[in-house]
Amino acid sequence: MVLIRSRTARSVIKVAVPFLILPVLTIAGALIFDQKKHIIISLSVAVFALLLFAAGFEKRSTGTRRMVIVAVMTALCFAGRFIPFLKPIMALTIISALYLGGEAGFLVGALAAVLSNFYFGQGPWTAFQMLAWGFSGLFAGFFAEHLKKSKALLLIYGALSGILYSWIMDIWTVLWYNEGFSLKFYLSTLTTAIPYTLSYMVSNVLFLLLLSKPIGDKLGRIKIKYGV
Amino acid sequence: MRSFSDYHPIVIAVWFFSVTGVAMFCNYPPLMAIALCGGVAFFAMKNGASHGRTHLYFWLLFLVLALINPLISHNGRTVLFVIDNSPITLEALLYGLNSAAMIVGVLYFFRSFTQIMTSEKLLCITGALSPKLSLVLSMALRSVPMFSKHWRKIADSQKAMGLFCEDNIIDDIRGRMRIFSILITWALENGIVTADSMAARGYGTGKRTQMRRVAFFAADWIFLLLTAALVSLCAAAVGTGCLSFEFYPEISASSLGALGIAGICAYAALVMLPIINEMGVKLKWRYLMSEI
């Protein structure tokens, strides 16, 4: 393993790799290959992003207590996916991100996706689900201060992330079927997926409304009591 | 000689990702047909005649996917008939069939993958990549049955104390909410106790080991190298354009050539690898039994 001595160089690489290489990979892939190969590019970008995140997590020293709490929240998400129609995964991911930080939120979302797919079926979409749920947690962690202060904002964030999740997964569906992005197909999948989009939205809002206060209080209490 | 599911998890994962990757990367109809047949054969070999509902669901999906393309896309020269002023073309229909064969084939493979790749095997792979993530995963996995057991315990004691009855809906829901709240408090506290106990036993101070020993045997290497060789032959054929196929505006295929034929044969062999392996295992078992 090569050790980079300069501190600034290290931090530059840390920022540059995810924010430069991923878009460059995407654009280069789109230009070099013809549009039939978009699916492979999007898949490899998703897997690469997840690997990057895993590498970052592995390097940093995370407290054992924090890790165990992440595992507990992941298990809760996993168990929640068995509820028919209404899925609390995203709401729970967002709540954990608010109190444990963006990285923990990303982990909860991404790991809940890969674990629960052992029951609901693994597939190439697992990588996209991991990324989508993970990002809903990561961004909730970024805006944690605002979201914690105003409940209306939190509910709007929940509804938006539900819609975005559905739309992102539909991009994937189109890429998979059509080998190349086609707007017509995308719009028709969006219309057929409206019930799902609504169910994601409703369950996010509902579970955030019901659970954000009690679970948030409990997480806050654990944080104060044990100094996680 | 071992059954396919007893090979090293990395070998299994590499095989699955190569088979499905080639199917998703390429749109050459014979390859899609091979992928679909292989997926069905592999699933049937694992499960026999059971899982009728899965088959029904997949073939209904196949029908829908095959028919949706000609209804939405009107590209192509050969018009079959006209519905509501929109032409239905042969090319779009064939394109839909091709895509449907690919998707349903890959779905079959991934259904078998979900069956073979147990969570323990996943932990073996993630453990090699990132021991920390693998730990979080395995703890989450263990927590799920533990939570459901503890849920029952809390529910029983709440009922025994007469705090809620199940025949009144409002009372029932409020009781369940209370149980859920108790469960989460307990789960978090229990997690902290676990973490402290792990730290006290020296977690993170030494090299991590695994519960089950997984070794890389010669057979694993052979399977892995065979997979790699067949995939690179396939990739060479696809990459040089021997296996390109255009649906629009007119159906046209590139001339196959020796490399194209080799690529198709390689993909067929790749898909058949575990099936051949399984047949070999069964034959050997029969032979050993006949000796007794």
CATH structural fold name of chain A: Arp2/3 complex 21 kDa subunit ARPC3
Low-confidence stretches of chain A: none
Shape of chain A: globular
Strand order of the largest sheet of chain B: 1-2
Distance between the termini of chain A: 31 Å
Major beta sheet summary of chain B? 2 strands, antiparallel
Number of helices of chain A: 10
Strand segment count of chain A: 0
Query: What would you call the structural class of chain B?
Result: mainly alpha
Helix content of chain B: over 70%
Beta percentage of chain A is under 5%
Rg for CA atoms of chain B: 26 Å
Strand coverage percent of chain B? under 5%
Largest interface: A-B, 50 and 52 residues
| Number of E-state strands of chain B | 4
What does the radius of gyration of chain A come to? Answer: 18 Å
Topology pattern of chain B, helix = H, strand = E: HHHEEHHHHHEEH
- The CATH architecture of chain A can be named as Orthogonal Bundle
Taken in chain order, the helices and strands of chain A follow as HHHHHHHHHH
**Average predicted confidence as pLDDT of chain B:** 87
Can you walk me through this structure?
The complex is a heterodimer of chains A (228) and B (292). With 228 residues, chain A is mainly alpha-helical. Helix content of chain A is 84%, strand content 0%. The model of chain A has no long low-confidence stretch (mean pLDDT 82). Chain A has a single domain (2-226), classed as Orthogonal Bundle (Arp2/3 complex 21 kDa subunit ARPC3), CATH 1.10.1760.20. Chain A starts with 6 loop residues before the first helix and ends with a helix. In chain B, helix 1 (9-25) runs parallel beside helix 8, helix 2 (29-47) runs parallel beside helix 4 (90-116) and helix 2 runs parallel beside helix 9. The longest helix of chain B is centred in the C-terminal third of the chain and has 35 residues, at 257-291. Chain B has 9 helices and 4 strands; from the N terminus they run αααββαααααββα. The interface between A and B is large, with 50 and 52 residues.
